[in-house]
Amino acid sequence: MSTANPLAENSVLDRNRSAERNRPRAFAGFAAIAAVFQGILIVAHGFVYETWRLLWGTTSSQLRTGLAVSATILCFSFLAATLLAFRYNNAPLRVLYRIAAVWLGALNFFALASAASWLVFGFVLAGGFSVSSRGIVASFFAAAVIVSTWAVLNAHWIRVKRLRIQLPNLPDVWRGRTAVLASDLHLGHVHHHGFATRIVRRIAALRPDIAFLAGDLFDGTHVNAPEVVAPFRFLRPPLGVYFATGNHELFRGDSYFADSVRAAGIRVLENEKLTLGGVQLLGVPYIHATHAEHFRSVLAKLGVDPSRASILLTHAPDRPTITAEAGIGLQLSGHTHRGQFFPFSWITRRIYGQFTYGHARLGETQFYVSSGAGTWGPPFRFGSQAEIVHITFE
Question: pLDDT by residue (tens digit) across 356-378?
Answer without folding.
Answer: 999 999 999 999 999 999 999 99
